[in-house]
What we know:
Elements: E1 5-6, H1 10-16, E2 37-43, E3 51-57, E4 71-73, H2 84-88, E5 92-97, E6 99-104, E7 111-117, E8 123-133, E9 140-150, E10 175-177, E11 179-180, H3 185-190, H4 193-197, E12 208-212, H5 215-223
Parallel strand pairs: 4-9
Antiparallel strand pairs: 1-6, 2-3, 2-5, 5-8, 6-7, 7-12, 8-9, 8-11, 9-10
Amino acid sequence: MCTRYIPPEMATVERFWHIGRHNPPTLWPAEIFPRQPGPFVRAAPKAELERELLVGPWSLLPFDKRYATCNARIEGIETRATSRRPWARGQRCVIPALSFDEPCWESGRCVWWRFRRADGEPLSLAGLWSEAVDPASGAYLPVYAMLTQNADADPLMRRMHKPDSKLPPDAQDKRGVVVLEAADVDRWLHAPLPEARGLVRLAEPGVLVGEPLGAGAQRSLEAG
Length: 224
């Protein structure tokens, strides 16, 4: 599962996802780990705006260590405690990213790889959003999580993550994020549940490219 990604700057988010310049100048880290604040785009509640930008912790229920998760598995999404209500309510979002990182264990040790779109465009990653109560202030905060799907059939993503010795090679349940094409963003945000679920699929071959990170970045991730 993805636990680190690089978000675009505000200007890129406004331009690429067509959310205008009415957004507050909220900053987010140059690289985002679970529970850190990050940007996500959702359907705007006001009719005159199709999309709006929010910033909040990357984790559903981030203040509850028992159930907090930065990823939401599409399998069982209708019944899982952290995802069933956002999914039923159509609280879907798009997570802007320039790249994301995954661990590869083909060498017998963890080697982090970085993935991006081959065409150089930003990534639109499918997600869910919700609200969580900050126990310190009592205020409601917007939160979000990435959707993940089985990636055993993906020739690139199935190479990632540590193999489970108890499972056969063709049933490892390797996970992958859901990459939306630009033409499908509004469908993901606004469509009925059955249509939205149809957008949860592996990226076409050649859409993503990946390569191992340099030694410095490897050490940084291992330390984190």
